[in-house]
UniProtKB/TrEMBL annotation:
UniProt cross-references to Pfam families, sorted A to Z: Epimerase
The protein, known as: Dihydroflavonol-4-reductase
InterPro entries associated with the record: Epimerase_deHydtase, NAD(P)-bd_dom_sf, NAD(P)-dependent_oxidoreduct
Record's keyword terms, sorted: Oxidoreductase
């Protein structure tokens, strides 16, 4: 039996869907308050849904009965300072529980980490799996939680755990809607005047799931893999999406000092309204940084042809138009 945590989320649901479409039975855990994604409802015969929280080890342990492989996709994603302590506690402790149960039950683990847990390279060089974060990113609460969660997996590996780690770049896809990375496209759809000078890695959610399954089914263990299809300048990303939506592309560059003022202003508005800020400090600072990733290690390990990012962008725009 295969267990998928976070199966109601963007990546987890896509991964579970690919497994059942291959006629592979899976057990998916969800919180009692979570809603089963529409795309998975037709596959009720192949999916054993269990209500469990990764923080509740006794209940989680019951879900491990008969399991031989675990895809750990569950994570709390937030960039708000107010969520720092509970998010780190949830992500790290939850991963520790999954790791411990995998070791107790001799289960192979594929852990979904993040590109946020990978370090940076020298200017002009691609970032690889060998780049490690040298200093704790005190302001990036999500990066801290993913880094420390990944450390739990490495702790398990040191104790004999059979595991592989993936570090996806920015995961995009029409299924995100207006949440997560979908917020970027919804913002562009509304019209923006400025673009930032940095760059980022992008990858379709379906490709991340394919890579996860391929790595799980391989003999590879105790390795981490960056999953990234293409590196894009924010300017090119914004322009491409704007044209797909039929809106005017941004024409002016937002300088670092402008982004600094923007996130501070957004923080003030958020404090007054109680809503999430339209731009947070981490996103503002990252907007001026070129972060380009090397996917050669992954390509050598598994046979993957990535979907062109431009095609995914077009699919996202069409979905949001509807």
């Amino acid at each position: 039996m295969i267990l998928v945590t976070g199966a109601t989320g963007f990546l987890g649901s896509t991964l579970a869907l690919q497994l059942v479409q291959q006629n592979v039975p899976v057990r998916c855990i969800k919180r009692s308050s979570s809603v089963i994604p529409e795309v998975l409802k037709p596959y009720g015969v192949l999916i054993d849904w269990r209500d469990a929280d990764i923080l509740e080890e006794p209940i989680l342990a019951d879900a491990f009965e008969g399991v031989t492989k675990v895809y750990h996709c569950a994570a709390w994603v937030s960039f708000k300072q107010a969520d720092k302590e509970p998010m780190i506690a949830t992500n790290v402790a939850g991963t520790a529980n999954v790791v411990n149960l995998c070791m107790e039950n001799n289960v192979r683990l594929l852990h979904v980490s993040s590109i946020a847990a990978v370090g940076t390279a020298k200017p002009g060089l691609l970032i690889t799996e060998k780049n490690h974060i040298e200093e704790t990113p005190v302001n990036n609460v999500y990066a801290i939680s993913k880094l420390e969660s990944e450390m739990e997996v490495w702790r398990g590996i040191a104790e004999g755990l059979d595991a592989v780690i993936i570090n996806p770049s920015v995961i995009i896809g029409a299924a995100a809607g207006t949440q997560g990375s979908g917020k970027i496209f919804e913002t562009i759809r509304g019209g923006i005047k400025y673009y930032s000078s940095g760059s980022c890695g992008l990858v379709d959610v379906e490709d991340v799931a394919k890579c996860a399954i391929a790595l799980m089914n391989s003999d590879i263990t105790a390795e981490r893999f960056i999953i990234n299809a293409e590196n894009w300048k924010y300017k090119d990303l914004f322009e491409t999406a704007a044209r797909c939506f039929g809106v005017t592309p941004p024409s002016a560059e937002a300088k670092p000092w402008m982004l600094e003022l923007a996130w501070r202003g957004a923080a003030v508005v958020a404090a007054i309204t109680g809503k999430d800020p339209s731009l947070d400090k981490i996103a503002a600072q990252a907007g001026s940084v070129e972060q380009n990733y090397d996917n050669s290690k992954l390509k050598k390990a598994v046979n993957i042809e990535f979907k062109p990012v431009k095609q995914t962008i077009e699919e996202i725009c069409e979905a949001l138009k509807k």
